[in-house]
Design goal:
2 copies of one chain form a homodimer. By secondary structure, chain A is an alpha/beta fold. The first copy, chain A, is built from 19 helices and 28 strands. Among the domains of chain A are: 92 residues, Beta-grasp domain (Ubiquitin-like (UB roll), Roll), CATH 3.10.20; 75 residues, Ubiquitin-like (UB roll), CATH 3.10.20; 165 residues, Nucleotidyltransferase, domain 5 (2-Layer Sandwich); 109 residues, no CATH class. In chain A, α14 packs across α18 and α16 crosses α17. The longest helix of chain A has 24 residues. Chain A starts with a strand and ends with a helix. Chains A and B meet through α5 and α6 of A and α5 and α6 of B.
């Protein structure tokens, strides 16, 4: 894909972008503020810029007069970049040089990997799915050769594909004789590799064996994510009418939803308690399966893939979510000494769990390490390749809990800290998941305090997701609207800061610019919740490093996982003290690490064994009675941290800001 | 057990018997005729004999006057032998010397093996059940040692019992955590050895691990047999109130019933056809499971063993019965080239099939050889040890079909011939299975033509079973009441031969002596059916031997299996031409060979692999288009056979009889 250079004036900042990229997004990525309060949905008309030279597609719009259009004015949110471009930012959006210095120089976001690159984190595997289909042809039986149908089929598989030691699912045997004859002794069979060898799970009349799909699911406490994979092509299925046009989100067959168990309680503990009630466990199991079935319907609908073509399902979840999904009472996860029922779960038939997939589909559950370090983390460690590398790596999965893994190819250690679901939208007044309409990027003009917001799908905003929250808090502190304790400064500099029903708040989007007919605000309570969340995660990392006598500076690599959508602004995450302050080059953002691992496991037999090896080699550090953790947590309850020396770059920027003020 | 000598006068014949044996049975076994037409039920009073000396218990009876009792007269059917005994047979029961010569000298019935001896046919196995229970104790988890419950259990099994490579049934995992804690970390676990290693199928609070039982079932086309085994003691369970007192049959937990599928048709072909109707297969499956569940209830009731103590079920059946039991359409078994669906069936959960046993119980199905040589035959070959011996052995299983195996440790060949269910009571006017009230032994006085009949359980007769039928026909021909074509000689010598509604017949028991308020007769049609049955079986043996260039004389051993109850009189079976005429010493009667094999498989892990090896090494000879078979069948439609030279001893006896007449 062609790369073009876009230069913004008067700051002179530039950024390299792909052909067709949206100009408002490019500006946000370059750290160039352009007022925009409708999320990029082309309704507010505030993102007016002038094309000083170069190629861009940008239509007329009622917010532009014909004369303005003639002079080169465009709406940034309506502009697709078609060549090198010079863009002039109008005065009302401009940030002066002094303010600009505060914002720091943005490094190119190399930590965001392409879908192809992300599979390169793990080495030494080929596309060789755990569940695969093959064609088999047999000679019809004769009086001289009348072995049983199953023996004929197994012998043919052996001869034609060199696969030995196959066991057969009883359900296949039940229908085998009829299918072999109806198919004229030419069939497509589905095999699965288990710990005990190959198992024949389906026989169909000759079909396209490339049509082999799996569904991978990350069961989070707050959010459930699913993707539909083409196993033979080693990728997430592209939706037939989903060419990514900048306004449509779901170019790929991926879907998510709140875990409907939330109605029984937001955190795992309340759910474990609920499961103890009569019928509670069954209800919780059915509830999570209901959410998953909804996601499966959505995936099948958007991809137009027939349900019968799904051969496999891989599930990664924390230990409590996994046990509730399987209907295994999680009671003892909650009671000291915090024991899960099993580390390894044998493949379970999907229909047995109530999952609406074919009779032959089995659910592979990622192995678990401990009560609070589950299959989602093993999947993330698998997907990010830590277990193969020399490099000392910190892996952080930021969800409802913060689970952190430290190690390399020789050793792995983990902790889990109860972080709360702020980044998934819970506990935040207008919080939401990273789906269409969520504010995912925020910039605030340090003089006018007007926001530039971008939403997922560039539609009118309906709430704010995790990455938007990090952006917003970082911008609020950088512009001085809040102090390092997260409290609003009430100097009346902007009417966007006001007293609302829940205390002080900042108005991100006004009623008329939203899809919910209500102002979207960020409250002081929201900010307090965010601080607790980020403090727990940072403290978890610190304690884990301390436990092996290492410091942040010794890390070679930090891998961030979490359902933040496409963007997590690492600089801003460091600015609020969620992440340690290290060179940007050391960070990799893998998005949903559990889904990444689940995809890889679907694609490769070799990684099946690796997943089990990872779960066995990981040592868990229990934080429940850990004094050091509470001290570190308290020390981190500040923006970015009470230990200023740990965040020198942030300190320098805050110092510059004070000087400028 | 003490052995006593009983001598019968005036013939002087004697027999060695066990302490407590019934005198009427001893006489029958010795070939001594005593009139008895009530089956030994103490009602007809005809079996009056005189004790001339020795020890016997025998109570008074209304049919004996006090004077007779004083003189030493007793009813034979009421007499238990307590020491060496001299018995005088009264004139009305006596058979003269000439007639006696005809009856031949009876060899001691060494071909009947004791329950202990029968397990010695197979060498090289120990009591080491496929499904077994062990005690496991664990240390409770601590914060320092909080591995998952399953890992703790598996590790403990490994350390305490040296068992590795255990996989776990998902259902065990579901309830594991609760049970371990309720049981105080002391549990009894049930493991099963499969082709893929050990599988953990049940965990209970600490229980008596010796209480480990299995149910073995032989699914015949006509009759289903079941036994309840104590796996650790390597025997059929003894019923608590079933001390064998000579009138009670079921000292052991064994039960049988007609296969209720009979209502859909007597032979496998009609049932296969029925299974093609809509819902037919399901109905057939449910029907056979219904019969099996009834047998299980009976076994549990008579043994007073709790259902939850049953850990395993082993099933042997012919291929059609096996497929119908499992719900696998047997359609192609019937159509050339006669292909079964599978030779090996993986263990199936009993509840999945509708079997009323615990959730954890799996059904092991004996592997099959061909469409008409099924798991019942593999079980018989396993149980009788043919596959281990140098000796050239003929194995004959006489049921609804006649299945015959020839070979030794190096090779095995089989044929199946459609024999018809005459020996199981079907196609015989008063035919019945070998259960209480069945006439199982018959002697006919060659002068008076009065019968001596013994029933199973020595109760009033209600019908005649396979061994009684063989006895009766042999006696009818020996006494000259029928000719060698099976037709009655109508010389008016006895009113017991008469014309009935179905043609000529012999009255075995009169209305007033039976429990069915009807005369029990044997008709010419019955005899014709018996001739067809025995001809098919004999012809099958002949063709199988011919196919490998061998003759009957070269056989080292003949093993007879079939549900004949306790007794099959080999001499009489040879006399009618069912069995080839060989030295009695070459014969072994194993009773129900399929159940024997099923028991052994339950008792020994080592034999699990042997069963699969047997099914793989056996070559089946297809008789469906075999010209030689039809010729042999026609030649055998005579009593004993059209080839008189093949039965020299029978010829000699018939010659003597003619001379005497």
């Amino acid at each position: 894909m062609d790369k073009y250079k876009v230069t913004f004036h008067p700051s002179g900042r530039s950024i390299s972008v792909d052909e067709g990229e949206n100009l408002l997004q490019a500006a946000m990525e370059a750290g160039v503020h352009i007022n925009a309060s409708c999320g990029g949905s082309t309704t507010c008309g505030k993102c007016k810029i002038k094309i000083a030279g170069g190629a861009a597609d940008s239509p007329m719009h009622p917010k532009l007069s014909p004369a303005e259009y003639e002079e080169g004015y465009r709406l940034a949110c309506l502009t697709s970049i078609r060549g090198d471009l010079n863009v002039e930012i109008p005065p009302e959006s401009q940030v002066d040089k002094a303010a600009l210095a505060l914002k720091g120089d943005r490094e190119q976001a190399s930590y965001l990997l392409s879908p192809k690159d992300i599979y390169q984190l793990v080495q030494g595997w080929d596309v060789d799915p755990t569940v695969f289909k093959i064609h088999v042809e047999m000679d019809p039986p004769t009086l001289e050769d009348n072995v049983s149908d199953l023996t004929r089929l197994i012998t043919a598989i052996n001869r034609q594909h060199g696969i030995n030691g196959i066991s057969t699912d009883f359900r296949v045997i039940m229908k085998l004789s009829r299918i072999l004859r109806e198919a004229g002794w030419k069939v497509t069979v589905t095999l699965v590799l288990t710990r005990k060898g190959y198992k024949l799970i389906n026989v169909e009349p000759e079909a396209d064996s490339r049509q082999n799909y799996s569904i991978v699911v990350d069961i989070g406490t707050t959010t459930i994510f699913g993707q539909l994979l083409n196993l033979n092509e080693c990728k997430v299925v592209a939706c037939p009418d989903g060419i990514c046009d900048g306004t449509r989100l779901f170019a790929l067959a991926e879907a998510s939803d709140y875990n409907a168990q939330i109605s029984f309680g937001e955190d795992v503990i309340i759910r474990i308690v609920y499961a103890q009630k009569p019928g509670g466990l069954k209800k919780m199991q059915e509830t999570v399966v209901g959410t998953i079935n909804g996601i499966i319907e959505e995936l099948l609908g958007m991809s137009r893939i027939d349900r019968s073509l799904i051969s496999h399902m891989v599930v990664a979840g924390n230990t409590t979510m996994t046990q509730l999904f399987l209907g295994i009472d999680p009671k003892y996860i909650r009671e000291a000494p915090y024991v899960p029922t099993a580390h390894f779960i044998p493949p379970v038939r999907a229909v047995h769990l109530g999952i609406n997939l074919g009779e032959h589909v089995h659910v592979y559950t990622f192995p678990m390490v401990a009560s609070y370090v589950g299959g989602d983390i093993v999947a993330g460690v698998l997907g990010s390749g830590i277990f193969q590398r020399e490099a000392l790596t910190l892996y952080m999965d930021i969800g409802t809990n913060g689970e952190i893994v430290l190690g390399n190819k020789d050793w792995l250690a983990s902790v889990s800290c109860s972080a709360g679901p702020a980044f998934e939208g819970a506990g935040i007044k207008f919080g939401m998941r990273a789906t269409s309409g969520a504010i995912e990027e925020v910039s605030i003009n340090p003089h006018t305090y007007e926001p530039m917001i971008l939403t997922i799908g560039m539609v009118k905003p309906i709430g704010i997701c995790g990455s938007g929250l990090i952006d917003a808090v970082a911008e609020l502190i950088e512009t001085g609207l809040i102090d390092q304790n997260g409290k609003f400064r009430l100097d009346g500099a902007t009417e966007r800061v006001r007293k609302g029903p829940d205390g002080y708040e900042y108005v991100l989007a006004r009623k008329e610019e939203t899809r919910i007919n209500d102002d979207i605000v960020l409250t002081e309570i929201d900010i307090g919740n965010l601080i607790r969340t980020k403090a727990a995660i940072y403290a978890g990392c610190k304690v884990l490093l301390d436990s092996v006598g290492l410091s942040f500076r010794e890390l070679d690599q930090v891998i961030i996982a979490g359902g933040f959508g496409r963007h997590l602004d690492l600089e801003k995450a460091m600015f609020i003290g969620l992440l340690p302050e290290l060179e940007i080059g050391k960070f990799i953002f893998v998005g949903n690490g559990s889904l990444l691992g689940a995809r890889l496991l679907s694609f490769s037999q070799a990684l099946l064994k690796e997943a089990e090896r990872i779960s066995l080699m990981m040592t868990n550090l229990e934080l429940s009675n850990h004094n050091g953790f509470m001290n570190e947590f308290m020390a981190a309850m500040f923006l970015p941290h009470t230990d200023a020396e740990a965040f020198p770059r942030v300190q320098e920027r805050l110092r510059l800001k004070k000087k400028a003020a």
